[in-house]
């Protein structure tokens, strides 16, 4: 060991270069040496710390009053001084001053450990304060919690958007349906479409087009849907005739139809979306006007050929003309009304686009100029003026992105393009900072009245938060997989077909297959037919919805049998069991131990009879030991009395020797040290004699008469005796003894017990927290149980036999004789009671004293 006074330069050089963050503190907590790693971690310089108190150099951050770094560190250092033992602190939030901003602090979290440096006499001379910087870990945990909160919010937003789209579909002003797959199965149909077909949703949903609507089977609609599905080219038709049921009869109606291919998330065609608007009334009105004009033409020709007839029937024609003119006016008004209705429907559709939750825009011409932008699309790019501008002018960031190339391809080829979660980096208008943003979108060509491509229609959704939430979820899933693989328990999941859908790493050591190779295989194939029959009943019960636990012996294969404890947990989804989780613990060793225990119990039964005979001999021996014990107590009393005189003579001779020594010898350090050792030995010898005397008195007082004692009054008297100690410790004492108003015992011995328990709780208190003591009494079976609990230093009860041994102590940093608990236990044992102790280091202790009830 280096001495800081004799070899300071060498010690400091070694200390400074240590690979950890360390401080060397004096007993007054002044900084005497600092490692280079510590300076780097605390953003400090050695010249600014040397000689200063650690609490002056590193005060609490006033912005984090809950941290309490100074008080926690001071309590730990004082405990090290008091006990002479190392103390490892819990993780501390203890910020350090910011060297670049006066009055500001830099966040820091530490794992501190304080270790005493003892001198040759075992006294604490210095304290090594070591810390580990865990700030990065704490900040990472904080970021993870924030990310999880954002993930929940993102899922809620997605669910809300889905609900809005569902309402939009149901309330749309047009008839809408979806035909899925080549079989054209009807998976969606809103109320307007069902009314148009003359059927309820239950009559059409889930059926194919021809099965649900047989009257349309020979009208070429099914062929047109198949063409759109296979070519992925939309179909738009106007005034298409169709024979449909109306009031129980087939009638001809006319419709404006759109058949639009719909894609799934992988870009594959899911089905065909049908949007229909009925225009039967407008078509019939136009046909009536055409028929009326044809009739007028015939009449005019007849008038020219038969002028004479015209003259004779002029009066009739005039009346007829008036009637015809009235009918023309009426039909004209009907046509105008139909046109107004069509315009209203157009405006309604336009409002639908503008109010849709999806982002929709129309780009016109080869330069892709914004012609229509709904509010949802504008919100994607706040601060940018879109209408009337080419897309590259307002979004120059996409010039090298895939999205711009697909725009050009759709405009050139007319093929609809769909993207899922495409990354498009965009700059924030307010500060120009680039952000990673993800979008789902469909780009679809727009055709003019001649069928030529003149623009692109875009339907888009921003999914940035969902992507980030999914990425975080995938990371969490991977972490969960690592955790389950680390467990020694077999964790799996079986579906309704009894096939593995999940298996953790523990399966490999049992079945010699990778967990991934088990997936999709039946459990019967993996565990073997014999083992399968053992658990088949439990599998059926789990798939029926029962949660159960069971034990079984499983012969998986020859030479490999396991005793298992298993839990089956059903997986309920939408009111049905879709599978169940399996958790399998290997209890082979426990079963073997249990079987061994049963065999031992049989042997114990056989030994019991022989023990009964031996017990009689033991009772006789015990009586002889009691007589020997009384003789031993008499010897202890005599020996302690006879030893007092020689010790007093030695003490007197020491005083005489001190008076006769020359002054120079008295002040010599070697002489002083030797005399100190002799005096200390004499004092210890005297204390030992006193303790022997106390033990002898205890033996003679075993027969003290027992009387009823008011427990609350006795405790109050003991508290008065201990008042200085209670005030010095600032201890709080809580009493709950109402259940035991009196205890039948020797008053002197009960007072001795109560004094011993309270004084020990005060003496061995923790220096890091306020002392707290609770005295409780209850009735239990044939005992009255007096319990004394504290929050002091606690004890390591692995040495419990030492706890009640004579002259043995578990804490040596405070004064004590080592016989208090020994006498305490002797008193209780002699009275037929018992003692129980629970204790945890640095948390506290509880002593329970069981007093036999008065049987009178």
TrEMBL record:
It comes from the Bacteria. This is histidine kinase. It is an enzyme of class 2 (transferase). One of its GO terms (molecular function) is hydrolase activity. Residues 638-855 form the Histidine kinase domain. The lineage of its organism: Bacteria, Pseudomonadati, Bacteroidota, Cytophagia, Cytophagales. Its EC number is 2.7.13.3. It catalyses: ATP + protein L-histidine = ADP + protein N-phospho-L-histidine. NCBIfam families: sensory_box. Keywords: Coiled coil, Hydrolase, Kinase, Methyltransferase, Phosphoprotein, Transferase. Residues 238-291 form the PAC domain. GO terms for biological process: methylation. Residues 282-355 form a coiled coil. Gene3D superfamilies: 1.10.287.130, Histidine kinase-like ATPase, C-terminal domain, PAS domain. Residues 476-546 form the PAS domain. It comes from Adhaeribacter pallidiroseus. Pfam families: HATPase_c (PF02518), PAS_4 (PF08448).
